[in-house]
């Protein structure tokens, strides 16, 4: 027991420093809404400043510590003011990538300046042991614990009782409102970045006597720090401190009692995984958005240009390039293949994965073990190694179903670092100190050993790259790709169309993992001696940086982004910089990405297009939009479209399957609030039923309960007589429930055509395999064609949603819901923001859908004129309780409805009341 207590007490020292740095992370997040993945690296800079002041220039201890803390504080404040402030309005992805780029820049700079070997730094605190409960513990651990407790108390007082703390809370709650009150969000954010970074610097200065001063020790500090902040929800000081202390103790005990290497490093990952999966949910919430994702390429393949590019590259390999350049080209090809995995996972599916190099390493390990230890042929081992990524992709994908955004990035980074520590760094698993001896690599009987026949190996990898590029491009143009893009853009809207969010995320991680594993295998088999040192956890961060720098939304992006990879053509070009050229490339690419994120966040692939070609395309696009009554997205005053054109011919009389929607005594509660109280209603095929009531009455809650976006506490929901309230939301959509959203929730990255195709595409699983080879033809169903005609969208099919005016976007939102061929259509305020002419036109279209197509339409709307003119029956809610039901005339004269909502008993359809205000819907 004494031994357990001793190691627990030792762990409190490191845990206290984790907690101190994590408190800084919490402050940065509270002040700016950004999770700083470079917290350990920023602290590292402060530690090196302390080292320079104290050990190189022999300044007094107190001054040296102060210089270290101030250096980190200035770095944090400058990063916000020079980079993040210029990224105002950027997506969460862009801000996360910015902190990752800062991490790479700082790590590369320190390695260039000081080298990789750690430095021994004497402790500034007393280290003599003292006896506590029978265990000998160094005094420095006690001092560290006391410093952490004092800092926590000081921070609590500062942010609870001071004007600055109140201003920080105000900015975190509502930056615009705070600015209106005279509080500058940017100054508050910069101040919190300075304080948070200072805490990181203090933690690093206190930690380096324990761990040594080195880049690896301090940059990897980010994992336990992130884990502690996650447990504290990036808001609670006490929870964050307790989590940091707990991680330190657990690491110390594991290091003492677990003999297998690396498990101490994995402790924070295990903790953060349990916490995030327990807190997560399967579909994003209503207000949960990751912001704008990378711009997407078209995915169109030009076979002639592809063949020309391959032929020119082969000519360079065999005729033009000297051997060192062939090797560099070979490395860049392999780096491109690995970066292609980011296009699938991040570009198409919108999942921020920081463990693609982990997939690559697992594939290389499996193939190397099969070849070296069991004598398998390379071709078969290659296939098995790629397939090895599937179970890991399933595990990560399931985690991605429960987490998203920054939390998924934290989880995957922790997994990558844990794989490095537990698997790749374990000589028993990695083939011993020298790795696996795989011998000569042969493909179809041809020796393509990358060491002795680099031209052959470069040719082989070029062919593989061409095939992978075609697969990724095909996916972009296919219905499987549209599912991924729908999920990345809006999980709620995708689920409402019957797209399985779980399937899409699992597929993205599996396919992305297989591509990364393929690239990792080919990279490792360049040499007869296969080693796994190239798959370190933080190298996934560098790979993500290069993928975003090149352009993660298009297969062209990895071609340029891979130029910054180690041993690539970029390194060969700048080889005159000496042995640190790879570090210089990392530094330059990180700095370049920080700059590009402020001006061109979509990557080099979208900026390298010749200026005149871009200008011609923009002019042609502007002419097309102008001819259709639209304005370009770059114009200051977009021309509104008052009324979309009507169909030029008869509308297809496509009939849907007649199904009746019923709610029977449905109650929905949110905590102690009853949002719906025993609601009973019925919607028959071919009729329009309205639901009205003031804000907060429960109207949107009703639609969410029917479509599966919230769970009733009691009651039943039936469709066609079959109970559906226990079904998943995707199953309800496929059974015949379609809906629109009050906030539109369109797929902004896609065209009108692609939005409608996403609604009417088949939901077959086979497409996830066949679309990689044959994208398939884009075919509208009869329901989709009818929707295009009814809503007058035929002239706008090839226009991106972001280029549509508001009225057309409203029409498209309803048209997309109708295009799915659903039996029941639930519309949440479809006329919000439309003019009288547009509203009447929408009412006519809905009447057509009900009369001619047999749809049952459930209309939630504040425009009473539209409801009473078009609805066969109307229900009225107030505070979740039904207060009236009947025809339009009956509702007009219902005293309870008049008092709660209409406002006058003499209300007529020609004199609609103003929209009620106040409350939460």
Automatic annotation (TrEMBL):
Primary location group: membrane
Protein name per Swiss-Prot or TrEMBL: Branched-chain amino acid ABC transporter permease/ATP-binding protein
Compositionally biased residues, Low complexity: 629-646
SUPFAM superfamilies recorded: P-loop containing nucleoside triphosphate hydrolases
Residue ranges annotated for the ABC transporter domain, each copy included: 661-904
Keywords carried by this UniProt record: ATP-binding, Cell membrane, Membrane, Nucleotide-binding, Transmembrane, Transmembrane helix, Transport
Record CDD domains: TM_PBP1_LivH_like, TM_PBP1_LivM_like
Region annotated Disordered, chain positions: 629-651
Transmembrane segment boundaries: 7-28, 63-84, 96-117, 142-167, 220-250, 262-280, 301-321, 333-350, 357-374, 380-399, 406-425, 457-475, 506-525, 581-609
Biological source species: Nocardioides panacihumi
Keyword Hydrolase appears in the UniProt entry: no
Cellular location(s): Cell membrane
Pfam families documented for this protein: ABC_tran, BCA_ABC_TP_C, BPD_transp_2
Membrane topology, as annotated: Multi-pass membrane protein
